[in-house]
Fold this protein.
Amino acid sequence: MHIIDVKNLSKSYGDVEAVKNISFSVKENVFFALLGPNGAGKSTTIEILSTLLSKDQGTVKINGHELDHDDDAIRKNLGVVFQYNTLDKELTVMENLALRAALYKMDKKTFKARIDALDKLIQFKSYADQRTKNLSGGQRRKADIAKALLHSPRILMLDEPTTGLDPKSRKGLWELILKLKEETSMTILLTTHYMEEVLDADHVIILHEGVIRAEDSAEQLRIQYAKDTLKVVPKAPLLKKLKSDKVPFRTVNQTVHIDIKDPFEGIKLVESYRQDIETFEIVKASMDDVFLNITGERLEEKA
Amino acid sequence: MMIQALIKRHLKIFLRDRWAVFFSFLSVIIILVLFTVFFRNAFGDLTETTEGTYLINGWIFSGVLMVATVTVPLGFLGIMVTDRETNAINDFYVAPIGRSTIVISYLIAAIIIGSVLGFINLIVGQLYIFLMVQTFLPLMTNILLILLIILSTTLFSSLFFYVVTFIKTSNSHGTLSTLVGTLIGFLAGLYVVVGNLPNITRYIMGLLPTLQLASLFRLVYMDEAMDLIFQDNVDIRETQTFLLGIRIEVGSFELTEPFLVLFSLLWIGLFVTLSIMRLKAFKK
């Protein structure tokens, strides 16, 4: 069953078309990622889906409710973590959470039970009574996620959640997101411009200039759009032999690079030319290669 | 329940930001300092009698009360500007609660904080007057002043709420606050003797809610002091009250208390209507 169904969605800001006629569906309980550089339309898409922004065209159904017709019903089952921190700096984490609970008409008993349950998952209670302005970036992000999860939403939307965090906090937060994926039955919708973050996703959409350029699992995208590489440090006769055998290759800094379909093809080649190889490595295709082959641009340069 | 939670949140945030509270009172503090250091002499012989001191202090604190009902709501509404500027308001928008309710919660909170801080001002003023002349304002005067504080705060909260809906940045809000803080002493006839101003200036000031509310506050606050000072001297009372902007007129039409209250209610009606019309700017 699809918990999110987007059909022909478009959105412009003046003359700038941010999202151009995109359609996609998200199955229940999956980890779904929108990958793209800044300006690809990811945030616009998530702002529309989270009922913040109006769409120009298209239909969106979330949890069976149609966007713009039944927004409150959609919001009840939606948790959103924005790129920016939305905790009130002058309030403690607990006060921030209590406010959220009141906005969802949560009674005290349920609130307390949810806090205990979330603490097991997120471990934020040790700093729950501190004003959020005194917390580290990582702690604030975790508190943000606790706030988004307080009302037990069925869908969690994470809009570039690791942006602006130091590497340690980023790693900690990512472990938490994976834990949420493993231990809850939520559907997680992530936007990111970090390639490594989509490797854990069940389904990836590559957005570029407001258009969906490809979608599949990260592994399938790699198989389909990029090749693994066999990198070899050659002995003298190797280049001649490869030429005479008509094996396509390129030389980079005295190493020979050969595109391969998969690691097994690489091993076969290594075995065939074993006498002429000093050493070798097989490099898996990265999502950056996928992005480059699909869009003609490197993701890291654009992000 | 949801709007209460939002109002409570806004109030907490404002009160915990001590500088924001301080700056809301900055005009009040400036007025008090200016009166103490410079303007007191303008009252001449009056400062030498108890009744005179009572009257002068009534003048000062009625002005301070009125100014606080202007500057505190404006300062407070900076929270709404910041919430929009930092997108913190988006977090409320994704909760199952109407956008109008969210936006109106700022207006209600502005009225509450303006009124409460106005009441504190009233108490401080009375304690000061008690120290100076060993008397408290009559009970009825206090009740009327409380009602007046609520009326004035509601008026200026709705006025500035409407204005602030157009403001996108904290910087612009800060500039507006400075501008209002500077002008309010003049517009309320605190730094100037209203009766000595050119006719056209008096006419325009009389049309504005600032002088109208200042007049109302003075009429109530200084009533007993004026009775004591002027006693049966009707002519002098008439001249002095118009000179000091206690009573005001537009052209030759005197704005008596009922008219001033009526105008205040009309102003509130106007700004609330304008604000409601602005709510559509907050729709997604």
